[in-house]
């Protein structure tokens, strides 16, 4: 049991939690963004991150500090918090990124962890092997064994109150990610980053990101705080939280500002292409695109970085509120409509609905049926799975319209896409209070028909009649022959 991480709220696999970082004396509410700070290039003063932006934790690279003589000596003498001027929690990376980029680094896990402890890091990282996407399985498995050895080396280091990351690797093989997660969770380490996903995100392969993360989550224990390494674009935060990620780190706010790029929740814009600033953060409230373009290079970069960070943190607060109110999947769907690759990610998420359903609350805010994909949400599957619990009379009319005042049936229930048959006693309970289109599409009707079919099969002694409103034959064909059909569009003609 990891006492330093407490989960407060759930929606799907998303959660709000509290991560205690004892060496810093700080508790970080998750989901949380850790801005990446390069100790050699401070785009935004780290002290302002805490006082003005409300950031409780940041991440910096201990390998860069270790490899830069003047910075290393200052870090050892002053300590990392004084060096950066930041009194929140500081996570340090180990140089694994440089290992992936350049093929070798001149430091071991034991050496870099001892160095991270010496400079005052609060959450440290061993030297794992970030295996790129799409490598052959043999290489992915071999790299994973090397990472598992690094975790064993890390567990053997006396780190005191310093938390230690246990990276989860495995390339694009979900089963290897699951194995890696299970192994990492079996150690005494504390935080569990899913690594080597940046190439997937850079390639807009969000469906693969979802499969990788949920593979890792299947191996990890529920009380494992999960860090998605290198993720921090606001457009994908809702999707990543819905997969069960708790921590994110981002250099995007600064790197994109350097290139004149302006972040939004639906993508990235080039400052030179903007006529208006679609944001009300302090930077956008005080500037126009023209005034930003006319600023000096350093000033423009700083202001764009501040905007980028503001919009990212705003989205994270929006995600937290969605988790708390039970509307996270609705937010994910709205964000997914901003880019086709994000839509692929959302659809991939719903492919794992059984995994989401395991932690999804039974009751929450209003279910909004926004598209055909709503039929694949975990709430619909859960309702269908429980239709066998309902008691049925000898004859039952299921109708898509208001029940008739006079009829010859023992009972009349409404059929509500995508859920299907709804007994009157449950009509005002979640999720059957759903807001749905008055003209449901074929997929929503198909899910409702599946509910009718399941009810009929679970209660074979009940005579079930289904009164539909000219539904398509391909939908009605999903019903068993035992269900009698009435077409409300033609009845009485």
TrEMBL record:
GO terms for cellular component: cytoplasm. The active site is at residue 93. Zn(2+) binds at residues 279, 281, 284. It catalyses: guanosine(15) in tRNA + 7-cyano-7-carbaguanine = 7-cyano-7-carbaguanosine(15) in tRNA + guanine. GO terms for molecular function: pentosyltransferase activity; zinc ion binding. It holds the Pfam family TGT. InterPro entries: ArchSynthase1/Queuine_TRR, TGT-like_sf, TgtA, tRNA_ribo_trans-like. Its EC number is 2.4.2.48. The keyword Glycosyltransferase applies. Signal peptide: none annotated. Pathway: tRNA modification; archaeosine-tRNA biosynthesis. HAMAP family: TgtA_arch (MF_01634). This is tRNA-guanine(15) transglycosylase. It comes from Halopenitus persicus. The gene is tgtA.
